[in-house]
């Protein structure tokens, strides 16, 4: 299909999805105006350098897959890339009150004390499972239990989901949150065989293994700052809350900025805002909110504490990416990231940095505590897991009241509402982490697809 003529596109939301869409549309010759209700573009990606420490308020790293690599190349940021340290390949899980290394090979799995013999045998036997064609969605925990053991759910899946979604595998949809697993069972029966086949297919297209973990010398905000800087001056409006969309030819948007109501006409509108903002948008002259129920998508609160210590205050060698904590271990932290091991420049000489995550679906009330109370709450965990001694010499707290959308079973009801709204109003397109996946690479892919859909009409 040939591209449409140049149009004026409104993009609501200046997170990584909206900024990626804006850049691609600008490259194609479209005029773009990006609306961001916050004080700066970038969404949840925020990097701060202070007193020799470098910390992230949102995502801490990203996988350097094809979409990310293409964007980095477009922006000329290759020289700013920082690969994760070799030690980052080592991951930990808590078992019986201490960090245990996650086995990275079949021989290591056999020797590992992380799982019992029954779980180890279930991993081998699962290779012979026949394909199943399920019609009803199910939770990730249900799927894994049906193929392996409860121990694997407790000591692998549960902490992994806490680290990715701040979620609960009993309440996450396989079909929507992990479509590759859903497809693997349907096509191969064995989840392991299915994932191996997927890896082989990716290798055949030139993608080698799992994408490496990267950041940038000055943090992930380098990426969103570069995106915003590549757009024409004045095209990103901050402190601008879009309140109403009046569909038509052209569409009209009404927004608030600096205490004043303003409006403008656009050929096309792209909604790349979080679910909460989408739920509040009125569409049409009668004040209807067709996406109001998106407010009901669970978004657990999450707090992170970036803690700096002198090296001699931490007994653990911090020789890895970090560690995740299963719920059955009854701790107050979801996980601990070894930030100063992961990337250079995160702590001054002679010091180390940890990022601790608290709350989520598991313990939402913990995330709402004041920083000092939160530090007291997790003190015992820090002592037991990394051998922390004494108070940190540096601390910064970030609280996300509605952190990560949970793709629960039945999530299609919200996807259907977004699809129906687009169908009713040609020239309206919706994307972002409420629809297309929660990771930074997912959001970059979403922005690219949105730009393609706009250009194709």
Automatic annotation (TrEMBL):
<dbReference type="InterPro" id="IPR004572">
    <property type="entry name" value="Protoporphyrinogen_oxidase"/>
</dbReference>
<keyword id="KW-0963">Cytoplasm</keyword>
<keyword id="KW-0285">Flavoprotein</keyword>
<comment type="similarity">
    <text>Belongs to the protoporphyrinogen/coproporphyrinogen oxidase family. Coproporphyrinogen III oxidase subfamily.</text>
</comment>
<comment type="function">
    <text>Involved in coproporphyrin-dependent heme b biosynthesis. Catalyzes the oxidation of coproporphyrinogen III to coproporphyrin III.</text>
</comment>
<dbReference type="GO" id="GO:0005737">
    <property type="term" value="C:cytoplasm"/>
</dbReference>
<protein>
    <recommendedName>
        <fullName>Coproporphyrinogen III oxidase</fullName>
        <ecNumber>1.3.3.15</ecNumber>
    </recommendedName>
</protein>
<keyword id="KW-0560">Oxidoreductase</keyword>
<dbReference type="Pfam" id="PF01593">
    <property type="entry name" value="Amino_oxidase"/>
</dbReference>
<feature type="domain" description="Amine oxidase">
    <location>
        <begin position="16"/>
        <end position="454"/>
    </location>
</feature>
<keyword id="KW-0350">Heme biosynthesis</keyword>
<dbReference type="InterPro" id="IPR036188">
    <property type="entry name" value="FAD/NAD-bd_sf"/>
</dbReference>
<dbReference type="InterPro" id="IPR002937">
    <property type="entry name" value="Amino_oxidase"/>
</dbReference>
<dbReference type="GO" id="GO:0004729">
    <property type="term" value="F:oxygen-dependent protoporphyrinogen oxidase activity"/>
</dbReference>
<keyword id="KW-0274">FAD</keyword>
<comment type="pathway">
    <text>Porphyrin-containing compound metabolism; protoheme biosynthesis.</text>
</comment>
<dbReference type="InterPro" id="IPR050464">
    <property type="entry name" value="Zeta_carotene_desat/Oxidored"/>
</dbReference>
<dbReference type="GO" id="GO:0006783">
    <property type="term" value="P:heme biosynthetic process"/>
</dbReference>
């Amino acid at each position: 299909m040939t591209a449409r003529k140049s149009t004026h596109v409104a993009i609501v939301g200046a997170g990584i999805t909206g900024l990626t869409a804006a850049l691609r549309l600008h490259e194609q010759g479209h005029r773009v105006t990006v609306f961001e209700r916050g004080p700066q573009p970038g969404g949840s990606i925020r990097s701060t350098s202070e007193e020799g420490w470098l910390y992230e308020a949102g995502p801490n790293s990203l996988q350097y897959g094809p979409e990310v690599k293409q964007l980095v190349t477009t922006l000329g940021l290759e020289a700013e890339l920082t690969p994760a340290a070799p030690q980052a390949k080592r991951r930990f899980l808590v078992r019986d009150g201490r960090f245990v290394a996650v086995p990275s090979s079949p021989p290591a799995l056999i020797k590992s004390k992380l799982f019992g013999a029954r779980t180890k045998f279930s991993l081998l036997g699962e290779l012979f499972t026949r394909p199943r064609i399920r019609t009803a969605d199910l939770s990730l925990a249900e799927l894994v239990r049906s193929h392996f053991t409860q121990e694997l759910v407790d000591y692998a899946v549960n902490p992994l989901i806490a680290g990715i979604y701040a979620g609960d595998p009993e309440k996450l949809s396989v079909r929507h949150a992990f479509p590759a697993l859903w497809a693997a069972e349907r096509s191969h029966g064995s989840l392991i065989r299915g994932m191996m086949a997927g890896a082989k297919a990716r290798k055949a297209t030139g993608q080698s293994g799992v994408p490496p973990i990267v950041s940038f010398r000055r943090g992930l905000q380098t990426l969103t700052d570069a995106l915003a800087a590549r757009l024409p001056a004045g095209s990103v409006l901050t402190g601008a809350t879009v309140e109403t969309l009046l569909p038509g030819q052209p569409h009209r948007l009404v927004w608030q900025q600096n205490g004043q109501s303003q409006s403008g006409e656009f050929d096309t509108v792209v909604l790349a805002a979080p679910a909460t903002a989408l739920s509040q948008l009125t569409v049409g002259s009668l004040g209807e909110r067709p996406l109001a129920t998106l407010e009901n998508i669970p978004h657990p609160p999450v707090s992170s504490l970036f803690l700096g210590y002198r090296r001699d205050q931490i007994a653990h060698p911090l020789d890895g990416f970090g560690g995740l904590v299963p719920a059955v271990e009854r701790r107050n932290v979801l996980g601990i990231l070894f930030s100063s091991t992961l990337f250079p420049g995160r702590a001054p000489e002679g010091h180390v940095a940890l990022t601790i995550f608290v709350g989520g679906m598991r313990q939402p009330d913990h995330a709402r505590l004041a920083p000092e109370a939160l530090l007291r709450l997790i003190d015992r965990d820090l002592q037991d897991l990394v051998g922390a001694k004494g108070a940190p010499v540096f601390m910064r707290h970030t609280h996300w009241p509605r952190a990560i959308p949970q793709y629960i079973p039945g999530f299609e009801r919200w996807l259907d509402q977004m699809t129906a709204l687009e169908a009713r109003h040609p020239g309206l397109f919706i994307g972002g982490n409420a629809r297309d996946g929660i990771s930074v690479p997912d959001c970059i892919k979403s922005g690219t697809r949105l730009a393609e859909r706009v250009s194709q009409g």
